[in-house]
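#lab-general

N.A. 3:47 PM
ok so I finally got the sequence cleaned up, no stray characters, all 372 residues accounted for. can someone with queue access submit it? mine expired

B.Y. 3:52 PM
send it over

N.A. 3:53 PM
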Amino acid sequence: MLVIVTAAFVWLMLPFYGAVLWAIILAILFNPLQRRLVQRLGGRRNLAAAVSTFACVCIVVIPGSMVLAALAREANSLYTRLSDPNFDAVSVFERVHAGMPSFLVEALSIFNLSEIHEIQTRLTAFLGEAAQTIATSALTIGQSTAQLLISLGVMLYVLFFMFRDGSRLAIVIRKASPLTEYQTEHVLRKFATVVKYTVRGNVIIAMIQGVIGGATFWLLGIEAAFLWGVLMAVLSLLPAVGAFLVWAPAAAYLFLSGQMVQGIILLAVGVLILSTIDNLLRPPLVGQGTKLPDYMVLVSTLGGLALFGINGFVIGPLIAALFVAFWSLYTDEHSGSEDGQLMVDSGVDEVASARAPTRKSSRSGKTRRIRK
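B.Y. 4:20 PM
back already:
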């Protein structure tokens, strides 16, 4: 019955799993603020939780809504310009086609794209399909506005109680856990640490890359710079290949259209700044906190995004980290030696100081029971 009712409860929560997930994430990220407020307000947890929830609204919800609104305007403006009958696409194609090397022209001829009119015909068909897709997406977003508002309300409501009762819930989880005290503490700490480092690290990297990339596009006079900056920020969630998917094609277009100086500048910014930021900041901000190798962070992030959408950039590394943590506990328990944590040799165990006494007492207890 315990398994059945638990599965039924999880199934019941699935429509709002994203709202509950982000309520837990924000509660973990803003937990230091909640603790300070409780101390400052003389232990009044309700008032402290209300202030912490309001802080989350001001820091996360309102700026996020403003960015989404600006992004929608920018995307609509770009689409309107491209679909305008007066838009001279032929001249753009001619400039690009004239700057193409011969081997690239031969490669395009394989796909029947060696002539300007063929490219224009293909693009016209693509814009027609894009228009239909955008119209459908806009209708879907309009229909799901109520669902979005409900999810936001559920998230804020759950977040308030997470702030107020989070420490009590942690105690309940520890008591209900079938694991030992050390194992339960290990898993809970791992969960909180991975969430904290994954979200905070990825958001910092995304903001830096998005601002630098968008500013570079704006200075070079590229259309819809804000849109491309936000797209680079979102794609930066993919380690190693994120922002490259935006600035590399843009640099190639600048080179092919004869804008050599702008192309060199964008290429230099992409290689020397954007890629360097990802390579320098991701290991200390994400990798060291999650204690996962770079390849596992990349694969788990891609898998999470494929299965869970935008929530996957947290869920993927979290599942991978818990996988490593549980297997390290299992091998450690069965090996009976300090070498049991070979999978997490880099220090995944954040409570290692409590490890030796716990084992000693456990073994001495087993010895006493055997003797008795």
